[in-house]
Write a structure and sequence with these properties.
Rossmann fold, alpha/beta, about 240 residues
Length: about 240
């Protein structure tokens, strides 16, 4: 399977940033899409959106990426993936003092463990391709502490550390690994927060950025990228 026509697996692909990435891929590339999320109804709607945007083929997978047994039971061979975008995530806007143990663990599982589980399952298939690409959607919260969302920052620190180690581990293979550390990007995570969406990153810009990375030769990789709102951080962060 040629890299340019292989399947792109996008976690959290049913809404928010994940769906925005999928829409850009649908419009601008020949990749088939595999959208992963837990909610089947939202996945069905996302599939229709991507087909209307011009996707050649869209598959959906309803699964909990934090569940090792669920992921192990999936057969990814039929999709012939050449790219994995670990986008699924959860944002907890709460101080560490107010955060429960359950919330702290949940942030780690969704934002870090899920990427580990799925990537481990996908790597053997990427190694069978001429070229493979893994993109982990991280956060500026991985580069500094966040006073209002410490558990989220912890989980993104973990994801970035995992990404850096994975990059080292796969350096001698055909698989490139990139972390994108996002500043405030408009998504469903901001619902209920008093913030002006127009001051945040356009989520489709994330998809455009990833596509530009795929257009590099196989000799090059952008190991880490920071994408920020043009006007800088927006309150209340």
């Amino acid at each position: 399977m040629k890299f340019e026509k292989g399947a792109v697996i996008i976690t959290g692909g049913s809404k928010g940033i994940g769906l925005s990435i999928a829409k850009v891929f649908a419009r601008e590339t020949d990749h088939s899409l595999v959208l992963m999320a837990r909610n089947e109804d939202e996945l069905k709607n996302a599939k229709e959106v991507c087909l209307k945007e011009g996707a050649k083929k869209v598959e959906t997978l309803s699964a909990d990426i934090t569940d090792e047994e669920q992921i192990a039971a999936l057969d990814f061979a039929e999709y012939a993936p050449t790219m994995l975008i670990n986008n699924a995530g959860s944002f907890l806007f709460k101080t560490l003092e107010e955060t429960s143990i359950e919330e702290f663990e949940s942030q780690f599982k969704v934002n870090a463990l899920g990427a580990f589980n799925l990537t481990k399952a996908i790597i053997p298939f990427l190694k069978n391709q001429d070229r493979g690409f893994i993109v982990n959607i991280s956060s500026m919260g991985a580069l500094k502490g966040l006073g209002d969302s410490g558990a989220y920052s912890m989980s993104k620190h973990a994801l970035l550390g995992y990404t850096r180690s994975l990059r080292k581990e796969l350096m001698g293979t055909n698989i490139a690994v990139t972390a994108i550390n996002l500043g405030q990007t408009y998504s469903t995570s901001w619902e209920g927060v008093d913030i002006d969406p127009e001051k945040l990153i356009d989520p489709e810009d994330v998809g455009k950025l990833i596509i530009s990375l795929t257009q590099l030769s196989s000799r090059s990789v952008a190991e880490e990228i920071i994408l920020m709102p043009k006007g800088g951080e927006v309150e209340p962060m």
